[in-house]
Amino acid sequence: MTYRDVFRRDLTSVYRSRTGTAVAAILALVTVVGVGLFALAADLVAVAGVGGLLIVGAIVALVFFGTPKQIAGGVLAFTVIAVVLVQLVQDPGRVNDLRPPMDTAIVGVGSGLSLVVPLVGLLGSYAALVGERETGSVRFLLGLPNSRDDAYVGKFLARAAVVCVPLVVGLALAGVVVQFTFENGSLLGMLGLGVVTIPYALLFVGIGLTASAYADSSNRAVAVVIAVFAVLRAGWPAAQSLLLAQVQDPYPRPEWFFWVGRVNPINAYVKLTTLFAEVEFHPLLTRPDETIQTAATAHWFAALVLFAWTVAAPVFGLLYFRRRDLL
């Protein structure tokens, strides 16, 4: 059995469960529904507030949905609620024919994906290997004439497809909406956003698969991926702030501040999203003072950082999986 056979077997099992459908539903909410809300209300604060609440609500609700039909119905319900809430909270003085600018779509969707893609990437991959151990099917997986490399690569490709296919479809559909409803809207810009989001998704699929190779149980795998996400999303910025607190005059931000921050793959991804629109201000990025000239804030450096993390995460898991006692 080659990695292709493992890929087909694992992909089928994921979609027989609700994991694959849940991932697609969450990504649809962030992309297609997200840009639809931006088209209704150019107020980023209003849309971010409504969208954030709805995404959290949808993720919680997915825990109780048992079938793809229920998940699809839940997404539809949350979409209707989101549209109604946006209409209620948007600025009543907004001109009806005012079209939101392209940078609103890039900042809004890119920011949303910077949070959601790690979650769905980890959700879709953390149980890939440890689940085989808990059910005992790992004996079947490794007992067939295939190497551990085939098993690992097949699992990685299957879980990557679960995340990346709905991601690309969602961004393509969102791009159509942006093309026709946003000022200077660009379908190519949204597809470009997809191009830089794919390695970002693969990174967290790799982290989830590495955690699954390491852990002895699903609970431990969940703990590992939560810890990694917490470190990257909250712990890293907190460490930056603590280091900055030791500086007598923190303004303008010193050069080392950007080197520390931009080697975080989440920051690197957010920086790359600004390639596809003229973004003067991004709420998730600190802009350097004009006197600070450093490669750490360049797009090429962000691409290098993201590429390095994306390659390292699954490779580290594969090297560990080769020598792991699984039986």
Short account of what is shown:
With 327 residues, the protein is mainly α. It has helices at residues 3-16, 19-40, 44-62, 68-89, 102-123, 130-135, 138-143, 148-181, 187-214, 218-245, 255-262, 265-273, 299-323.
Structural class: mainly alpha
The portion of residues assigned to helices is over 70%
Main sheet specs: none
Low-confidence stretches: none
Number of E strands:
0
| Estimated share of beta-strand residues | under 5%
Number of helices: 13
- Counting structural domains, the number is 1
Distance between the amino and carboxyl termini: 19 Å
Can you give the mean pLDDT?
83
The rounded Rg comes to 21 Å
- Helix-strand string: HHHHHHHHHHHHH
Shape: globular
Give your account of this protein's structure.
There is one protein chain. By secondary structure, the protein is mostly helical. It has one domain (about 5-325). It is built from 13 helices and no strands. Helix 5 (about 100-125) runs antiparallel to helix 12 and helix 12 packs across helix 13.
List its salient traits.
single chain, 327 residues, mainly alpha, globular
How do the strands and helices of this protein lay out in sequence?
Blueprint: H1 3-16, H2 19-40, H3 44-62, H4 68-89, H5 102-123, H6 130-135, H7 138-143, H8 148-181, H9 187-214, H10 218-245, H11 255-262, H12 265-273, H13 299-323
Helix pairs in contact: 1-8, 2-3, 2-4, 2-5, 2-8, 3-4, 5-8, 5-9, 5-12, 8-9, 8-13, 9-10, 9-12, 9-13, 12-13
